[in-house]
Design a protein that fits this description.
Chain lengths: 220, 220
Amino acid sequence: MAYPQISIPTVQRLAQVYARLGELRSKGTRKVSSTQLGKELGTGSHNIRKDFSVLGEGAGQAGAAYDVEFLRNRIQQRFGLGRTIRACIVGLGRLGTAIADYDSLRKAGCDIVAGFDSNINRVETIRIGIPVHPAYQISQVVRNEGIELGILTVPVFGAQEATNRLVQGGVQVILNFVPSKVDVPSGVVVRNIDMITEYLIASAFVTLKSESQNDTEERI
Amino acid sequence: MAYPQISIPTVQRLAQVYARLGELRSKGTRKVSSTQLGKELGTGSHNIRKDFSVLGEGAGQAGAAYDVEFLRNRIQQRFGLGRTIRACIVGLGRLGTAIADYDSLRKAGCDIVAGFDSNINRVETIRIGIPVHPAYQISQVVRNEGIELGILTVPVFGAQEATNRLVQGGVQVILNFVPSKVDVPSGVVVRNIDMITEYLIASAFVTLKSESQNDTEERI
DNA sequence: TTAGATCTGTGAATTTTTTCACCAACAGGC
DNA sequence: GCCTGTTGGTGAAAAAATTCACAGATCTAA
């Protein structure tokens, strides 16, 4: 490979940087330093610069910081973030319909072109502006529509079956909002967005924090 | 401290294990091995056992795996996950109201007792079963109600101000669904749940995957 | 032009995290 | 009871990620 292997934390941070650069650009900011980016992501400037090394040479100018527009394009190109990805939502409950209407996702390049629900008569289906299909048609519609990404917002017990159908239709990426893991063949990328676990992690940190205060120690 | 320092990845995995143990328990499963838990979390059994070392001795029985109920209690006790935490939601748009109705969160111990919105006349306010207040009352209500956790679902431009008010009221934990970082005083725990960034990470991985296929290399 | 401050890029050192290797403990069949 | 296969616990080794340190480039201001 022309470029070095890229570690997972690095990809994550670069994606965050990319999102942040979009905000800066729309505010009209032209330049940004690694120090500032580091501060905003909650890490050190060293880390940011190290991450940027995967972008090849000349990403920034020594002494003159990074050009917002140029850097954004560089990241976009490196990770193929420019193109629009066709997506669908499985599970049109409150959360699913909320996401279907979430404008920031569309702006990021996620084009939601279909919705699925096991109950085709749901009231909510009226309120969203995308074609809705029954769940048993997932594979077929995904294939016909050239959908690459699936958003899972079904109840826990239906998650694996929905996943299987998405994969069978040819989906490559799944954003899983269901608080349980799903199995996929190797090659399919799953990102879990699990607010239950996040809640638990947060409460655990609070407990640990109060412990370490008692010990006059810092951590976390 | 009586226990060793606990690393952040360990806390995260243990929270995931805890959530998983809850599922297993409700399915009636009595025993679970480190191998199985590792598989479900996408890591090795070594890692799981290493993590459990922070729980003290006797968490499991050699040859007999872990007792689901016992292990769950042990984690609960270690991280204070048993108690109910009073919470509020700031921003009652589609996402906010969806979360307010999200039953799994309540089951995990998150008791949402108030909602806030800058537009008090929102239609959606009618549809949720919690008292709703205007945003300028955040600090006061949070303090009076003894709210410890705030869920942020406002637009980007209002996030920092809402955060400040939550912190001023005495909130210790924030679940931030807004796709931008917020500043908090040290001591306040923030967990970012940012689906835009998750989307970007997922698409980046897809690009990298296709690259590494060309090179007959595996990563990610 | 010059001085001083700021910034990037990167090899090396450090720290953190994961993985390994292996012993003792236990369950179940016979 | 006794053997066999499986499992947990843990110190040591390996791998990965972060932080450091500094050379070299650029900008600003006087």
